Fold this sequence. Notes:
Keywords: Kinase, Membrane, Transferase, Transmembrane, Transmembrane helix, Two-component regulatory system. By secondary structure, the chain is an alpha+beta fold.
Amino acid sequence: xxxxxxxxxxxxxxxxxxxxxxxxxxxxxxxxxxxxxxxxxxxxxxxxxxxxxxxxxxxxxxxxxxxxxxxxxxxxxxxxxxxxxxxxxxxxxxxxxxxxxxxxxxxxxxxxxxxxxxxxxxxxxxxxxxxxxxxxxxxxxxxxxxxxxxxxxxxxxxxxxxxxxxxxxxxxxxxxxxxxxxxxxxxxxxxxxxxxxxxxxxxxxxxxxxxxxxxxxxxxxxxxxxxxxxxxxxxxxxxxxxxxxxxxxxxxxxxxxxxxxxxxxxxxxxxxxxxxxxxxxxxxxxxxxxxxxxxxxxxxxxxxxxxxxxxxxxxxxxxxxxxxxxxxxxxxxxxxxxxxxxxxxxxxxxxxxxxxxxxxxxxxxxxxxxxxxxxxxxxxxxxxxxxxxxxxxxxxxxxxxxxx
Length: 404
């Protein structure tokens, strides 16, 4: 009785191993007691050498069981037939060896299919009854009924144990299958989470920088002939943004903090740097810091708020048509709040899908990414906007939860 799979196989083999050891010990005890009884009662008889030789041969044959494996091969069938033949010869010479039949029942049930196993049990039981009747010389009810009763009990016990073993194997198979399915689900969820993280990082850093470069180069192309100085300024600014994007890409590959937070820079400095970098011909970005943190913000909180600011400004620049935007970072006792406001044409937040994507226009990633980042830190995101009246995006991160 075994199953494939490391855990199930180990568990079943351990339980089956104890049963095998118990059967070996019981068989050897029965065989030894029958041999001792025969030698005590029949000392000096000519049959003694034969009985001793057959008993030793039967013990050796029985102990070969582990070497033959568990599968019902031809070699195992030959071995079982030899064991039964030697036992029948012993029983014919000394009927007291008939008590060794019970372990043979178990071997037969484990090796043969049910019809053949039942036939073997019937043959062994009939041999034991015949030998005892021949020895007693008269019809004894106990001798006739006891071996079949013992055979029936042995078969019933084995069938019940085999049924429980099958149920255990099925349960272990179900557990192994469930564990594999759970592992596959976790892998899929991990892949999806990593894809989401990559998309947010690309949108808030690389895509934003590329968009800024495109706008600067387009502006430079428009004034290239009429105002070369302004064109060169735009090109230099685009070059600086490209250099910053390259740094972001390298840190992004190595899963490091944003470049604006490197070298010990804090969130206040990073937001001011971001505002200066985003300020151009068409958009002016202001930065306000209200209050001061009672303790340094965790790195994850600073990175998240900076990415939210980058994503929000990317939406302002690409979709709002605003000329002025403001970043406001407010430190409160129990939370830190980042507000991003603009004077653009706004939109109606009630006309967005559950994933924050507007019902009209191309499907975006900005607002869903911002909301996901906020929720990952246990924060709340609020968006207030009306058509032609600008937009205010507010992300509040609780400090107690992020510190814990």
